[in-house]
């Protein structure tokens, strides 16, 4: 394998040169035109893709936190908590996602820092949970109305 890579330079494989010291340096094999006057640093993606496992983890994390906290609030003996259980779960999930991103930015976890894409994935998880919980609550209310026997049919029996 070492012999295969012996003659290769960053000119042949541009991704071998990951740690560039000069931010104005362009990738090899790219032709710059004289009409381009912008010479600032190039925006790099740093592996933060939209369709990555990390984004799925953020969606699922916020989804399940919303479902869990909402379920706990819904089982509460206090009517105020039951009435607002979906929003309480959503706020708890958003707070957990924001705390995770703040921790990423501060450096508590080994990560590249806070990401707007992670925050969007968190909000998507919360939105899916709100939709699922709202449909479930609507369906369970509708079902409970149908199960109750009519007063007229009880009088006839």
Topology summary:
Elements: H1 2-5, H2 53-74, H3 79-83, H4 85-106, H5 116-147, H6 151-156
Helix pairs in contact: 2-4, 2-5, 4-5
Per the principal axes of the C-alpha atoms, what is the gross shape? elongated
Strand percent estimate: under 5%
Oligomeric state of the chains in view: single chain
N-to-C series of helices and strands: HHHHHH
Q: pLDDT average, as an integer?
A: 76
Helix content: 55-70%
Number of helices: 6
Distance between the terminal alpha carbons, to the nearest Å? 88 Å
Q: Which secondary-structure class do the elements indicate?
A: mainly alpha
Summarize the structure.
This protein is 58% helix and 0% strand. With 157 residues, it is mainly α.
Polypeptide structure, described:
With 157 residues, this protein is mostly helical. It has a domain at 53-146. It has helices at residues 2-5, 53-74, 79-83, 85-106, 116-147, 151-156. The longest helix is centred in the C-terminal third of the chain and has 32 residues, at 116-147. The protein is elongated.
Features:
about 160 residues, about 60% helix, elongated, transmembrane, transmembrane helix, membrane, Transmembrane protein
């Amino acid at each position: 394998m070492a012999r295969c890579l012996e003659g290769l330079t960053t000119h042949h494989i541009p991704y071998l040169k990951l740690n560039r010291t000069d931010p104005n340096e362009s990738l090899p094999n790219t032709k710059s035109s004289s009409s381009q006057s912008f010479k600032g640093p190039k925006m790099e993606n740093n592996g933060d893709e939209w369709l990555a496992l990390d984004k799925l983890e953020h969606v699922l994390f916020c989804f399940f936190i919303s479902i869990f906290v909402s379920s706990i609030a819904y089982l509460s003996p206090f009517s105020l908590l039951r009435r607002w259980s979906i929003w309480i779960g959503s706020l708890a999930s958003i707070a957990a996602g924001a705390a995770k991103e703040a921790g990423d930015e501060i450096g508590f976890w080994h990560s590249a820092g806070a990401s707007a894409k992670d925050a969007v994935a968190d909000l998507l998880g919360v939105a899916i949970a709100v939709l699922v919980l709202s449909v479930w609550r609507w369906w369970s209310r509708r079902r409970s109305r149908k199960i109750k026997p009519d007063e007229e049919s009880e009088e006839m029996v």
